[in-house]
Amino acid sequence: MKKFDLPFILDILFIFFASLFISFTVLRFYLDGLSYIVTISFLISFLAVFIGLKLLSDKHKNVFLKNEDNTKKKEIFFNLAFFNENDLISYFLLFFNKAEIKAEKTKEGIFLSDKNMLVKFCFKLTPLNSDDFIKSVKITGSKKILLLTDNTNSDVISYAKKTQVKIICGTDLYLLMKKYETYPQIKFSLKANEKIVKKRINIELSRKKAKNFLIFGAVLLLFSMFVAFPIYYLVMGNILIITSFILRFYGKKTENTDTII
């Protein structure tokens, strides 16, 4: 059963009502007949929704990780950075077994007999650099190497393509863990630690504030229909609604924050 995508539906409703408010208040200065204005306003709003569906559906499809997954991914790789070699071997032997890949422990690490490939690890709190790459894959023999890591850079990717090294890192590795439902033991729980000022700014510029800007903007646009000098209400109302658009789709998502336990 397809999961109910509430954020996507809320985005579409937001586009519809914001477009309706703007088009109605602007068109009434150029056209006569309330029913005519309302009809055109609804048509413009439905057109905006159609465009929104095209743009936002692709955006939602391309999001592989939800917020909770992203947090879990960071937590997993943070903990893996503190694993010693034996702990890493023990966990990934379990991982490959769950993935139905023949893996055995050797003095060099983990050997995948079906693929004639040696598995090496490099999990750290900073991106994998060139020196880390060379140190991690430096072995004897002609075996192919599978390097598992959490983050890397373009230079390392380029070096790997020139050698017999395949790299699986970051999101790709986490998605495999999720697919086979095999995760390492979590000893350290990560929680963001933000400064008060930064946290307050994030709250004020969060997506949740978009509805406030939309409501205030809509009220000003409605007042423009009854005042002697509507231009000021029209300008400020449209500015607030445009701001609500920006916050809705580019604003920060607020999260509960605390220190590292």
Quick structural summary:
By secondary structure, this protein is α/β, with parallel strands linked by helices. It has helices at residues 6-27, 34-61, 67-80, 85-98, 130-137, 154-162, 170-179, 196-204, 210-223, 231-250, and strands at 103-106, 109-112, 117-122, 144-149, 165-169. Helix 1 runs parallel beside helix 9 (210-223) and helix 1 packs antiparallel against helix 10 (231-250).
Major sheet description:
5 strands, mixed
Q: What is the beta-strand fraction?
A: 5-15%
Number of helices: 10
| Overall domain count | 2
Structural class by secondary-structure content = alpha/beta
Taking all residues together, what is the mean pLDDT?
Answer: 78
Proportion in helices: 55-70%
Predict the CATH topology of the largest domain: Trna Endonuclease, Chain: A, domain 1
List the helices and strands in order.
Answer: HHHHEEEHEHEHHHH
Question: Count of DSSP E strands?
Answer: 5
How far is it from the N-terminal to the C-terminal residue, by CA?
Answer: 37 Å
CATH architecture field of the largest domain:
3-Layer(aba) Sandwich
**What would the principal axes of the Cα set say about the shape?**
elongated
Provide key terms for this protein.
261 residues, Trna Endonuclease, Chain: A, domain 1, alpha/beta, 10 helices
Describe what you observe in this structure.
The chain has 261 residues and is of the alpha/beta class. The chain folds into two domains: 104 residues, no CATH class; 111 residues, Trna Endonuclease, Chain: A, domain 1, CATH 3.40.1350. Strands 1-2-3-4-5 form a five-stranded mixed β-sheet, sandwiched between helices. Strand 4, helix 6 and strand 5 form a beta-alpha-beta unit.
